[in-house]
Amino acid sequence: MLTTSLLLLAQAAAPGPEAAADASDALTQIGRQDSALLKFVVDLAYLFAAVLLVFGLKMLASPRTARRGNMVAAVGMLIAIVVTLLDQQIVGPWVILAGVIVGGLIGMVAARTVPMTGMPEMVALFNGSGGAASAVVAIAEYWNPGSVVRGDLTFSIGLSILIGMVTVTGSLVAFAKLRGMTIAGVRLGNPLALPGQHVINLVLILFVLGLIVYLTGTPGATWAAVLIIVVAALLGVLLTAPIGGADMPVVVSLLNSYSGLAACATGFVLENTGLIVSGSLVGASGLILTQIMCKAMDRSLLNVLAGGFGQDTAAAGGTEAREGLTVRKMGAEEAAMVLEAAQSLVIVPGYGMAVAQAQHIVAELADLLRDRDVNVMFGIHPVAGRMPGHMNVLLAEANVDYELLRDLDCNPEMPQIDVALVVGANDVVNPDARDNPGSQIYGMPIFDVDRCKTVMVCKRSLNPGFAGIENPLFFKENTTMLFGDAKKMITEIVSELKSA
User: Fold this and answer.
1) What is the pLDDT of residue 4?
2) What is the pTM of this model?
3) 427 catalytic per annotation
4) Which CATH superfamily includes the segment(s) 332-499?
């Protein structure tokens, strides 16, 4: 390429009137070659970034490689962003460097200050930010006075605005639900549905799709673009508000998928290969994760979107059973004696462990018992907590050995296990999901901890979980309750074991 350019320049330097025309043609040809070379380099960079994103997603599938996968994917995204900014000559290198520093500092502060119990809310906000960015870019492209919007691009703009606005408002509602916020005394974590909710949603979806088709045929109809923004924002609220606390892990993963699809649609608006590829990867992986979450709850995605499943419980309730049921209570000293005599133990963590920030002391308990030749494993349910992988993140923070983590495949071993220690979990160990066809969680895969020889449940009260239903596990003959804050209770048990 360089040799060809030099020969063309030499030809352009020749004297004579004909040489002037030849020079003009030569310079035009050089410009085309340079443009082709630049496009090749940009596409190559996008390809490399896409490869990094794919490998990063692959590594995120295992707790052992998840941290490394996150870094690899982040590098891939950084390359794609920097190449795009430089290729489009949007900002200079120093502005990019300043953005990396400022953004990195914000991310570092957030990572260090946001507690693990706040991670689901933080993820919801991140999803919303991605959707908002896609919608804003699409809106800016539509109203850009320097560009002529073609009909095919208008269709992509409409889709980007629709998915982006649904993502941002839906994520804000999810944030409020996860945060336990209230409006006029109404807890947003509970399912909130209007009469004829599904019919209203269907009508609005068809209406906004009709607006997108109309805008495609009439790109100058700005009123249609404004209506798309308003209706899409309303749809995000109406689609998320009826969904209860039990389905929050599914909602978080679904909104993550929405943010990727919005980015992909915006990629078509900007005709940017990197954005199309990265958005497609995020959207596809989010949908796969959503399907995994639905399978773990034995619910279809339509059931989740229909809403109404799960109540967000408020303050801790009582520790006394209702009439006709018996609750067996145990203190730290007795619990330590039971654990010390056990040969095998399964620990099933839930959101209560996250609230109490008890993951480190639980990990210490596991290490202490393993040193005494107790066979210890952790049962991690796919929907335990309030976001996908919540328990894995908590236990990784406490440096729990990945080899100790088991999923539902350990259920056949439960009858041979001496002790099951349930720390802040509820619905994922509720036997009604297995035994009671009349229960709303019937069919949901659970850990069969009630089949262990002894079950110890560490919980503040007898309050129901996200599903808002009573758990008969608490009243079984082989179950004892360790009432109180999980961190305090497990700390007392560890102290008893150390002093024994």
Assistant:
1) 45
2) 0.77
3) yes
4) TPP-binding domain (3.40.50.1220)
